[in-house]
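re: ur question from yesterday

yeah so i grabbed the chain u mentioned. its 138 aa long if i counted rite. heres the sequnce exactly as i have it in my notes:
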Amino acid sequence: MAKRARGTTTRPGQRRPIQRPATRPTSPGVREGSTAASGSQLAELRSASLTAEEEARAAELEAAIVAQERQAEEGRRNRSQRSAPDVAVRASSPLATAAANEYAYVARDVRRVAIVGGSLVSLLLILWVVTQVTGVTL
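ran it thru and got these structure tokens back, copy pasting raw so excuse formatting
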């Protein structure tokens, strides 16, 4: 077996570190030495590179994305409110709070297991009845 040197990044089973550029690429029209472009310069750059139709399309896409984000955030809020425990938990007991949250997960998992198990048992019962009625033997 070959001797390994300390501090190498190329050990077996590991990937090399990702090589990323030190600075971000600058947009056209903005010099690298300048700290920031003014608002009027950015507006000129946008108007020079985009047509009115492209700007309208970009505005529509941005509005759709914002609407989807709002809808997703409302869905997350509704889910968190639904899964909140009905039992009053003292705020001074972090263990009780964690346990109440875990009980919600356990209850949901047990419900899923019961549904899957019940459907499998009912499927087997239906297959047994069908084989008894038709007289099919394996």
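noticed a couple things. The radius of gyration is 31 Å. also Helices lie at 39-49, 52-82, 94-134.
anyway ttyl
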